[in-house]
Amino acid sequence: MRTAFCIIAFACCCMAEAQHTIRSGEIWNDDRGMHINAHGGGILEHKGRYYWFGEHKSDNTSAALVGVTCYSSRNLADWRYEGVALSVVDSVGHDLERGCTLERPKVIYNPKTKKFVMWFHLELKGKGYSAARYGVAVSDKPTGPFRYLSSGRANPGKYPVEMSAADIAALDTLQAENYTEWWTPQWRKAVKEGLFLKRDVTTGGQMARDQTVYVDDDGKAYHIFSSEENLTLNIAELSDDFTRHTGRYTRVAPGGQNEAPTLFKHDDTYWLITSGCTGWAPNKARMFSAPSIWGPWVQHDSPCRGPQADTTFGGQGTYILHHRGTFIFMADIWRPEHPSDARYIWLPIKFENGMPVITWQEEWKPE
Ligand code: DGJ
To answer: Is the Cβ atom of 103 under 6 angstroms away from ligand 1?
Structure first.
């Protein structure tokens, strides 16, 4: 009898251990026993609960057939399915028409309005990746339902804060017809100087694709996204209610081709971890730091260490979660041929000689 009790107690202990362990790349089941379907996602902590929002992916298409899903957890390891937080719409011509592309959703909480605000990358149904729009939705509850507000390109008519009157005047010398061939030294120089920025500033605003949002210690929020044909990142300040751009933004790594931006702050330094642009295929992560969100941003080597470090362990970053004084790098291992089977990589960020380092671990436990 006593032996049987010991065996059961030991087994229970092992199960609890297993449940609180993060194993990147494996199937992660929710409370229903189904692989978590929340890709390109991010996490919001609210009143002691974590809310994970991400793209619902179908079995054979990356188009949005469902919308943004939400899961919640108290310990970052056991996740409860909360349902569809933002749904696609069955109305022809609607921005969120079923079959659109809705990627990389992130949710932040605004304490002034008491609203949860979701930002995402939106591509209109049947238009490939040409719309290059941000989308915004709000909700009174973290789990939704989120109400779609608007979508568009960013900061029409506005120039980045770092551009002087002379820099803006110099844009007149950049004539698109002189740069029809990409990747030449002249074209690269023109991109840095604002070839695509100039094109978009007067025609609806800056392109907004891969994206994240970040709330700073002072309560100000920022939208970080791939712009200018994925050649340049923008960091754009958000309005006090977090639902609009204010018109103030900075360009990061012009011409550097960065996607998948993730941002965090540690000891007054801002860190950006991004990827290169190779579609669904993994590539080497990039890292930048700055003393202010407005820059200047300096590039460093990839923070990844261990097997497959040169391809970000086979994944692409999506979010950095600030968790009780530590940081967790979240990434996706895409499976474009079977999108719903995409996997997750979550790894802690450590610091070595003041620099962030992400080392592959088969399994680990959040503190
Ligand atoms: C890479 C991006 O990071 C993903 O979010 C997705 O847009 C794919 N490209 C599409 O190829």
So the answer is: yes
